[in-house]
Amino acid sequence: MANWIITFKDRILSWFGVGKKESQPAEPEKTPIVEVARQPGLSCPECGTKLVISIASLINYEPVLCHGCGLELTIDQEKSRQSIESLRKLQDGLDQAEKIRSDNQLN
Question: What is the pTM of this model?
Fold first, then answer.
């Protein structure tokens, strides 16, 4: 067979995962980077100032006031009901974890 036919056949076979395979060392799975220390919040839609918002303020539907321009942001309670309930569950879990941690430090 001509060289181009062999090359063509090898490419077709490798396309379907058949034939010669060059052994490649397995790369370890990369660990995703998670930013834990970042303060939660958002940027003000008017002036861009960083607004720090706690889970507690969200759960209690507290308005957020921008100290840069004075804009007051409020949560649409109807549209956010499921999200707020999820945050409540998260906060309950965090509170339980903190209690366990502090109880274990006393022992």
Answer: 0.53
